[in-house]
Structure formats: structure tokens, C-alpha cells
What does this fold into?
Amino acid sequence: MSIRRQYSLPNCTLILDGISDGQRANEARPLMSTLVNAECHISGQKKPLTGGMEFFQQLITVVSNYTQELLSKVVNVPRAQQVGNVRLEKGQEHRLTAQSEQGEVDWQLSTVQLFDLTEAIDQFLADGSTLPALQVGLQPTRRAAQGAVSAQAAPIGLGLSGLAATALAFYLVPAPTKITLPDPAANKAPVNKTSDQPVKSNSKPPAPATSPASAKQSVPVTSTSPVSSPSASPSAGSSPASTPSPAASKKPIEKSAIDPKINPQINDNPTQVAFIERKLRREINQKWEDRKGISNKLTYTVTADEEGKIVSYVPKNPAAASKKEQVPLAKMVPDAEQAETTEAPTKKISDFSLSFTPNGAIEIKRDKLLAGNPTDGQPLADADRVKSLAKDMEDKVKLSATPTFKSDLTYRVAADESGEIVDYDPLNQAAFDYEKETPLPAVTKYDAAAASGTKPLAQYTVVYRPDGKIEIKPRQ
It folds into this structure.
């Protein structure tokens, strides 16, 4: 079965032609498992970039690493990135050269075109139904020999859409120059102390103060707090409302309220981070009920603890700040007032870039890439025990009501040696859509050792049929 996928931006179109291995063939969006040909078209360029899987993988890696270094600002000029026959370097603009199937290509990309190319790649990476097995290796941003700021050296990684949109916009704007505010006293005429004492014509007005404090006020400062809606600030001359609204009294915990000494980032366990990401996706998917009325992608930085519970979120783009009431995040975090009266939990945390898209999809990416690949946990070695647990599991996962779904729901379900279900993952779209009709959310218990990958687990494929029957098989 041949499949074509297209990811289009104003200045870039990415077209992928491939075939399916038969999995999910009956779904509206079947799985593309093998790439046959990739085409990249840039507006104003007559010849496209074309090639197979190796070429496409090289293009993704080069563009991601180059844009990462461009945004990090650790170095003034990003170093040239080259993988195989694809090269991207800083010239007058951004020069992309490649040896594709239609001959050599030499493009001069504007920053806007580079962003659109990055966004097209990001759309592909967020599409779980297209080449899910594709592995992309990224390099961490190098530190400059002098003057490097450690906070800027964190790699951007994949999923550049929300951050790159803002960062590249600022990249196009020249650095602000110092602005000196006028001294109000300079425009006022001197006042006589007595009515009979004339003002001298050669007298000079006093010089404006130049204290360090006033000098700081003359330099524009960019706030790091999340963008608030226009209605949050009263206009000049008006008084603020005397009684805050109920919505205003419940404020989500801001990023700055998290103490990194008490809540360190999980940077050494990709299995644990993958567990948190799965749990976040499942719970947000269950709680996001009204998915209409979003015309732009809403992107947030979401911080979750070891159990996958959201502890804070911060809007990353203006649309996200103004549409917070249309997403379920506010209902999933403690409010600031309650947090101040309770002792800060000593749990590790992990940051994610979370996007709600206009088509009703949820995109979650780790803000910082980790070394190594995540696993589903250590396998339970006792084959007989794995088989016996499958029989015990039937009572726990059986449906309690007549199903309304019309196609199979397929899940990966993990249980520990005692038979406790500790993790699960929907494997097809129907499984996400009808998750609430299954008992899995209620019977799954958090286990720290299982979440971190240090506990042996039995893995199963559980399939719910539209006729109410259940199929449970050990995973190989």
C-alpha cells in the first residue's frame, strides 16, 4: 500500500512517499513504515532536494543541529553542519548544499525559509503515523572558549516549532540600543522662591540625576514571566477591580516557584522520562474535552514530577497565554496559594514542551535530550510466571459496560511479578480515543521502581474488541 504525506509551510513543502507494512491499514491514517522517496521544496528555488531514507535522515540531522546552534547563541556564528552529502553553513544568509538524486543543489536560505524548513521537519517528527522507527542523532551545542553562558548551552533538540518561532523572530530584530528617558524637570520653568526676586536669564536648569538605578531604567528589559492577557493590566488612569474574580484567585505555580535544589531535573534516566511523558499524554488526553476553537498551536513549558503529575506550566507563545482556559492544564496543577502553605515535595522533575494543535492533537517533547534510549523496563525472566499473570490479568482489565467503539483498541500493558498493573501505553488512535471505556486508568498503580526501569516487568499486548472480547498476549 503506497502512502504520501505532505507537510506544508508558506516557504517550504516536505513530501514523503512510502509504503505500509499492513499495520493499521484499516485506519483513516495508516502507518507509513518504509520511506521510498523524500522531496523538499523551498519557495523561489527551481530544483527540489530529493533522495531516499539515508538522504532524509541526513537532512533532518543537519537542519536540527544547525538551528539548535543558531538559537543557542553560545557562538555568534553557528559552525557548519554536515552529515554525508548534506551541508548547512552561515554565509550571507544560510547556505544549504546537497548532492541529491536530481543533481547538486546550492540554496541560499533566508532565516524565515530556514524556520519553515525546521517547522516542516518538526511536523514530520510529531507525526507518529509516519516512519516511527526513524532514529535521528543530534549533537549537543558546543561551548565557546570564552564568554559562554552555561544556561545557553543546553541543546534545543527536536521539536523546534514553538521555541524557534519566537527565537528566530528575535534573531531578525537588531539588538536594542540604549534609550534615555527625558527628564520631566527639564521641561519645567524654574520657580521663584519669592515674587519680588527676578529670574536670572543666564541661569541653568539642574542636570538630571545619573544614578545607577536611573541608568538601569533607561535600558529595556525583557521579562521572563509568562505573557499575560491584555485584560490583566488596567489602563492608565483607571483603578483596578476591588474584588478579584474566582478565576484570578487560582493561579498556576510559575516556573520560578520551583527550587532546583529541592526538585532537581531528571537528566540521567531516559526510561523514567519516557514514563512521565506517557502518563502526561494519557491524562491530558482524557481531560481535554473541548478541542474546538483553537486556530493556532498553543505551546507551554510543562514541569512534571516523578509520578507524571504536573506541578507547573508556563505559556511559550502569546496564543497559549490568551487561550489557557481552553486547555485542561489549570485543572491539573495545584494553585499558588495552596502550594505556599504546604511543604515543598522533594521529588525530581522533568520539563517538557507541550503543544495543543488546531486539529485536536497533543504534542509532547522533552526540552532537553538525554543520552541513551528509553526502555519499557527490565523484562521478567520467568516465562511461566508471565503466562500465569496473563490469566490473572483478565479480571482486572475486562470491560464493565457494552463498548461503543467500532474498531480494536490495542495497548501495551506492564505488570510486576505480583500482578499489579504499573504502566500502559495506547498503541493506536482508537485506543487513545476510547481510553475512558477501559478500566486501565483506574487499575494502573504508580510504582517508582517500575517507572525508573529498575523493576522486572511482564509486558503484554491487550486488545479490546468491539464485541467486548479481550485478547491478552505476552509481548516478545
